[in-house]
Amino acid sequence: MREKVERLVVLQAIDLRVQEMEREKSGIPQSIASLEEELRKEEDKFRVEKAEMEKLGKDRRQKEKDLEEETDRVKKAESKVFEIKTNKEYQAVLREIESAKKLNRQREEEILEILEKLEQGQKWITGAEKDLEGKRKEMQAQISGLKQKEASFEQEMAGEVRQKEEQEKEIPVELLSKYRMLAGKRQGIAVARVAHGACQACHMNLRPQLYIELQKQETLILCPNCSRILFWDNGSTKAERA
Fold this sequence. Notes:
The chain folds into two domains: about 25-160, Orthogonal Bundle (Helix Hairpins); about 175-240, no CATH class. The chain is about 80% helix and about 5% strand. The protein contains five helices and three strands; from the N terminus they run H-H-H-E-E-H-E-H. The protein has a three-stranded mixed sheet. The chain starts with a helix and ends with a helix. Residues about 235-240 have low confidence and may be disordered.
């Protein structure tokens, strides 16, 4: 019976390795999606800021155009002011010219403010563009690494499955069935080592007589508390490999 239980120990170690690889492998797509989403957010932020700078640039050009046209109108009005015959018309034109000049001064201030924002924005864009390219390369490298890891898991798992199949061939069908049933109920731990007289899965101390029987390992012994298959590790090389 010891040899059969030893094979279960090895089988369980394989199963646990496969489970762990499956767990890690299953999380890779989400990790990749998270990296891609993070990159998309950075790119969206950059596009929004760049679009804002482009809009400011258009506003500046429009204001400069309006200022130029209004300045020309003021000059034309000033050149004709002395042609006006009545004082009332003269005063009206002067007020109109002064109002237009005031509006132009306001436009000039607005243009200066836009220029300051454009200068600051361009500095941000230059730095952000460089940072974004660095992040893009870094994330692409991480994604590539995750995909390689995923492919590596596939190969490793295929090798583990082959070992598992070899072990299962040497285990009686009834015992293998019991192992699978227990593994399904006990989070993959169907076989528990016994050390210092206690089950290492549930940590319950065994009765002295049961512990003596376990050391002989002539029959299949289950833990009275957790019902796992008990295995006394006496330095077996198979157990060490597991």
